[in-house]
Design brief:
Layout (H helix, E strand, L loop, with lengths): L1 H24 L18 H14 L2 H5 L5 H5 L12 E3 L2 E3 L17 H10 L3
Antiparallel strand pairs: 1-2
The structure holds heme C.
Protein name: Cytochrome c
GO molecular function: electron transfer activity; heme binding
């Protein structure tokens, strides 16, 4: 009986160590994702539809809005999507980005393809 338990224990230990090594070996994988061939629309009706979707349907401001401006946002004002929230979800903390057109702190320097890939198609 002791030998069987020892064998089972050794097998379990081997399994756990093997799993840990496998998981650790996949921690820093990189994937090459091509940029979608898209261009932002300039038609005012399409731009307005996008504004409506972002502000009302997709709820982007819930995460990307500034928490200090939440009251104004809830009162219906269009606050800048400058980020500021911290989601503390163990084991990590997540910070929605500043997605204003600011070239330094926002996404003003992103190409249309980079924005589409980041926000709309791949989520990263
Ligand atoms: C549930 C919360 C949440 C919602 C809702 C959300 N986002 Fe995000 N978004 C994030 C987080 C968190 C990141 C940062 C991810 C990271 O750093 O890897 C992010 C990243 C981005 C980025 C990439 C910015 C960069 O600097 O790389 C863009 C663009 C973006 N979001 C646009 C949008 C749009 C447009 C919407 C609405 C359609 C939206 N997000 C809705 C949480 C959210």
């Amino acid at each position: 009986m002791k030998k069987v338990l020892a064998g089972l224990g050794a097998a379990l230990l081997l399994f756990v160590v093997g799993l840990a090594v496998y998981v650790a070996s996949r921690q820093h994988l990189k994937f090459s994702v091509p940029l979608p061939a898209v261009a932002a629309a300039t038609d005012p009706a399409v731009v307005e539809r996008g504004r409506y979707v972002v502000r009302n349907l997709a709820s982007c401001p819930i995460c990307h809005g500034d928490p200090k401006q939440m009251e104004r946002a809830q009162a219906g004002e269009e606050v800048p999507l400058s980020g500021g929230f911290e989601f503390n979800i163990p084991p990590g903390k997540f910070y929605p980005s500043n997605i204003t057109p600011d070239p330094e702190t926002g996404i003003g320097r992103f190409s249309d393809g980079e924005i589409a890939r980041a926000a709309l198609r791949r989520g990263a």
